[in-house]
């Protein structure tokens, strides 16, 4: 697409940017979870089961929603790129 029609190359990069944003969401959740875990100390309370399952649920929620959103962005982005490439009426 970018080789044949250089004017549309930047327009078709939008799905790539949106997929990158999903990765940044996962990174933010990972940093928040990592920041809430304290290093082991003799007197401090340990990392309990409740906290572990809460962090697992947060990671799964972010990961699975990112996975499905990425699949949707890929499907819609593919259709959009093909539509823009085949006709000028979409502009």
TrEMBL record:
Pfam families per record: ATP-synt_C (PF00137)
Q: Which GO terms describe its cellular component?
A: proton-transporting V-type ATPase, V0 domain
Q: How does it sit in the membrane?
A: Multi-pass membrane protein
Family to which the UniProt record says this protein belongs: Belongs to the V-ATPase proteolipid subunit family.
Q: Know the name of this protein?
A: V-ATPase proteolipid subunit C-like domain-containing protein
From the record, give the transmembrane residue ranges. 12-33, 53-76
| Main location class | membrane
> Mind listing the GO molecular function terms for this protein?
proton-transporting ATPase activity, rotational mechanism
Where it sits in the cell: the answer is: Membrane
Where do the V-ATPase proteolipid subunit C-like domain residues begin and end?
A: 5-33
Q: Which InterPro entries match?
A: ATPase_proteolipid_c-like_dom, ATPase_proteolipid_csu, ATPase_proteolipid_su_C_euk, F/V-ATP_Csub_sf
Q: Which UniProt keywords apply?
A: Hydrogen ion transport, Ion transport, Membrane, Transmembrane, Transmembrane helix, Transport
């Amino acid at each position: 697409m970018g080789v044949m029609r250089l004017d549309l190359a930047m327009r078709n990069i939008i799905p790539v940017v949106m997929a990158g944003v999903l990765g940044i969401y996962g990174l933010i959740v990972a940093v928040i979870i990592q920041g809430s875990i304290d290093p082991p100390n003799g007197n401090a309370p340990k990392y309990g089961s409740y906290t572990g399952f809460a962090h697992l649920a947060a990671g799964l929620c972010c990961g699975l929603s990112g996975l499905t959103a990425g699949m949707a962005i890929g499907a819609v982005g593919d259709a959009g790129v093909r539509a823009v490439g085949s006709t000028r009426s979409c502009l």
